[in-house]
Nudix hydrolase 8 (Dendrobium catenatum), 716 residues
Amino acid sequence: MQKAMLDMSSEMEFLRKTCSMLPICNLASIRFFRRMSSRQRRDVSVKSSYLIAKTPNENTIALTSKNIWGKEKLVINGSYDAYPWISSRESYMLDADEDEYGGVIIRPECLPQTADAFATILQSSLFHWKLQGKKGVWLRLPLDQAEFVPVAVKEGFKYHHAEQTYLMLTYWIPEGPCMLPANASHQVGVGGFVLNHRNEVLVVQEKHHYSFEDVWKLPTGFILENEEIFNGAVREVKEETGIDTEFLEVIAFRHVHHVAFEKSDLFFICMLKPLSTQIVVDELEIQAAKWMPLAEFVRQPCIQEDNMFKKIIDICIARLGKCYCGLTAHQVISKFDSRSSTLYYNVVEPEDYSCQVS
Amino acid sequence: MQKAMLDMSSEMEFLRKTCSMLPICNLASIRFFRRMSSRQRRDVSVKSSYLIAKTPNENTIALTSKNIWGKEKLVINGSYDAYPWISSRESYMLDADEDEYGGVIIRPECLPQTADAFATILQSSLFHWKLQGKKGVWLRLPLDQAEFVPVAVKEGFKYHHAEQTYLMLTYWIPEGPCMLPANASHQVGVGGFVLNHRNEVLVVQEKHHYSFEDVWKLPTGFILENEEIFNGAVREVKEETGIDTEFLEVIAFRHVHHVAFEKSDLFFICMLKPLSTQIVVDELEIQAAKWMPLAEFVRQPCIQEDNMFKKIIDICIARLGKCYCGLTAHQVISKFDSRSSTLYYNVVEPEDYSCQVS
């Protein structure tokens, strides 16, 4: 938990710096990031439990409101004695922070010890958040509190996303469609086009593809968590072939949908400059690797017979002939952002192109 | 479940067509996609339960193997009678398919009815998969079987990813680090640079940002699930401002890490051509929208004082002067792929640039 607190603290620092990136960037992500971080901002956020105690005429609302739990739940009958588990109501609310969209974020560090206690306090809390007109409720359950998952689902929570050690659930209170932001939507892959001074391209044959064992392809792979595209391409080439390279440009990228887990895939084709020649094959994933004459690589039927591959190779060849300019990577540390942020854009060299300003 | 079967069937068709995209594309995603789809490929995959029955000398292995459940679990004592729940062992195995990496994918449609029954059969299945030397175990639990989640976690499963209606858990059997592929790593945002014939740029002020209420920014947002980048940019501009546009180019993209839920963010800056002039503000998200003289937009201190924003605007202006070429979107339907697949690349117009082939 201590690490989580530290992470959140550094996220907050990032947030403060990022929030000033207003004129161009995607504020939705920043806004949501702020919301998810707000549970640590005790100085600026107001705890919902505090608000509940301060809501005017709350008793009246609670006593006259229609039961929103359904028939199986206890019915409000004009007295708090109808809630046998509530002695002091405020102490039976889950500790949570408000977000700026009218929702609440339950503090995972303040959850009760047992599933029964969690069920009781979750019901009580939801009841009050509904009366308060709250919208989204965020519940992050660590792996070691998995027994709380069915409790939350029974109360109407749905899954939002999961990482190895926690599950995020959400509950959308208002009528109408859920307006909460979606989880991550894409995986990102990279492919390296590496040509040596002999006009040979670095190619591999992967294992686990016995039906395509004669096909030579570019080294490819997924980028790692929070890895830069330009680093990922260099790393994948190094891992699969042992060749050191230097990133030059993103030549093109491909966007395709409904791939693993129904997510989308962005695949960046990168031009890399070789810095070594000696191939060392990664025996875990790669069957073979070699330097292959470019003409021979292009002549492979699976490239010649396919519009997409042919186009990509045409682009790479055009780039070699300086008839094409890809996107170079630039560290663009914003005034308010000390984190790694890379802007990929196209630098037209004056010596290559005659710029015609209209 | 029927829908899931249909989805899987269409995924398989996609797979067959995609698998031939070998020479360039990211095979890892295709491979994994194949694996996750394999539970429907009864014609080509071998059920693990069938394999178990056929494993030679299995009894010997089971009787002499060290107990891998730990002290709390039943100890193997030389007789199957030590497993009181096992009458016919094969019938107490979870139905699962092998994947091509030596792992198994449990069939969610064949799970037992109760958590107790699930606990029993999961223990039994894990025991045999361990003896068989299996690697990764994939378990997809629908929302309405949330009571199985703590059972699986107790047996050592961890969370992999979740969507609204299901949770995917995994168990990595071998010693050493887990080699299973990660879940989705990125969210994707778009921003629209829309300039009219009067040299005015389309700008908005967002709600929920009271401390920045004087700042005018480009319309931005996340792309929807499985949406094209070029469609997402046009849609966001339409939703926020009511202006119809036509996608021209991706001008640049920004890559930043540790944003919402610790995921990374890819943000594509798109140049769009306006097709209408009448602004209609989205009152839910947008405070105000207007056509702002480009010079006035650029003069805003938050752009002038920030390297990144200034660079992006410089690029947009260079593009207007035909001193820059962005990436255009091309449908590149591969011979074996009937799904939507978009390749973004840079088309250098001969009339704009003098190509110097080296």
